Amino acid sequence: MSDALSCTYCDGETLHSFAAHVELFDDAFLRVTGDNFQLFAPAPTVAVSERLGKVPYFLRLPEGGVIELPAFVLVRAPRKATGP
User: Domains in the chain, ordered, with CATH?
Assistant: First the structure.
């Protein structure tokens, strides 16, 4: 288990974003937790945006949700990310 990182989560269905925490477990799956929700996603199904200066990272979840992480966080992308 790794340490949780603060993030912003958008469900992809509304314009509302939520303060949350994201964790990577055993390099196998992500857990996203907020005040009233908890989500899991297999790590290989999460698309990771490219590194671009100080622009935040965006992790796109298979069900359509998006996680925004600060640019200073080191993100290891899965070998084969899926998504647009």
Answer: 5-69 (2.30.29.30)
